[in-house]
């Protein structure tokens, strides 16, 4: 009975996150559609907002509200976890508006959208921490935020992007540490050393870089490599936790 309850809950939760519904948006003037969409955005009614905005976008693709509708859709898709649709809308907007005045915000939203794709519904639901899952979305988000800082250093979103890069850097370093630990458990000593050295080169100011030294000690001991073992122990002494 408990299993059925959890399964039912998951099905309802997944379905409630979808933006598509059977309701048909009335054929009303674009100004009215836009006003309804804005009210929905303000109240956090993301599905309603998306319905109105999608109707505007499809019925009046080159209308007066066209650019703002796409910007609003990017935000609404992100808030409703329609991340693939959000990414597609970002790509479309950039193709049509390569030099838009809100290009920094669009790039920031790309970073947020990619960052959100690193989440797992099941992991969030059961508070499971899986550093060993594929971090490709986080890599993309890191590149997006880095590009934002390079192109728009004075952007209103620069400070938050920088803070998120710190988080993402630790996320990526933790993934590499989990991989190095996997090699240790498989007794693949050389592979573990190579992965630990990668962490120290690419993410030197992370906790994972310090922890990777401990794995290198294990690997060097197993390989009987005394000189690098002593050097690594010295680094550990110089970098206490």
Commentary on this structure:
It is found in: Cell outer membrane. With 241 residues, the chain is mostly helical. It has a domain at 21-100: Serine Threonine Protein Phosphatase 5, Tetratricopeptide repeat, CATH 1.25.40. The chain contains twelve helices and no strands. Helix 4 (66-79) runs antiparallel to helix 5 (83-96) and helix 9 (158-185) runs antiparallel to helix 10 (189-202). The chain is elongated and about 80 Å long. It starts with a helix and ends with a helix. Mean pLDDT is 88; it is low at 1-22.
Key descriptive features of the protein:
mainly alpha; elongated; Serine Threonine Protein Phosphatase 5, Tetratricopeptide repeat; 0% strand; disordered N terminus; 74% helix; 241 residues; single chain
Secondary structure layout plus pairing:
Layout: H1 2-16, H2 30-43, H3 46-59, H4 66-79, H5 83-96, H6 103-116, H7 121-125, H8 136-151, H9 158-185, H10 189-202, H11 207-223, H12 226-238
Helix pairs in contact: 2-3, 3-4, 4-5, 4-6, 5-6, 6-8, 8-9, 9-10, 9-11, 10-11, 11-12
